Amino acid sequence: DACGSNPCHNNGICSKQGLSFVCSCKEGYTGVQCTEFDPCYSTPCMNSGSCSKTESGYQCSCLQGFSGHQCQSFDACYSNPCQNGGTCQTSGSNYRCICAAAYSGKICSD
């Protein structure tokens, strides 16, 4: 019996297939015998970032404007909202424009 030795790890379910076996792995595990943990299974990347498995765990590829190990940080100045030479400063999830001389307003447009 190919499944007699319990070849499937991490609570995988063994099914006989001819003289061999096939493992149905529990969520989060992959591989012929369910021995490989998928660190991307829990969807660790935030803000629509994409997850890639690496030797040391996982890596998130963030959408433009987001950063951090899990794409958790948003750069409010990413879109360059300040006009007329104004300088953008991030303040939490908001931004503040430091306007050049002769300009004023939230985005230095006045």
TrEMBL record:
Domain called EGF-like: residue spans: 1-35, 36-72, 73-109
Name the record gives this protein: EGF-like domain-containing protein
Subcellular locations according to the entry: Apical cell membrane
One cellular-component annotation, GO: apical plasma membrane
Disulfide links within the chain: 25-34, 62-71, 99-108
Matching Pfam families: EGF (PF00008)
Membrane protein topology class: Single-pass type I membrane protein
Gene Ontology molecular functions: calcium ion binding
Lineage, top ranks: Eukaryota, Metazoa, Spiralia, Lophotrochozoa, Mollusca
Keyword tRNA-binding attached: no
Superkingdom, natural source: Eukaryota
InterPro entries registered for this protein in UniProt: EGF, EGF-like_Ca-bd_dom, Notch_Cell-Fate_Det
GO terms, biological process: cell development; establishment or maintenance of epithelial cell apical/basal polarity; eye morphogenesis; heterophilic cell-cell adhesion via plasma membrane cell adhesion molecules; negative regulation of developmental process; negative regulation of multicellular organismal process; neuron differentiation; positive regulation of signal transduction
Keywords annotated in UniProt: Cell membrane, Developmental protein, Differentiation, Disulfide bond, EGF-like domain, Glycoprotein, Membrane, Phosphoprotein, Repeat, Signal, Transmembrane, Transmembrane helix
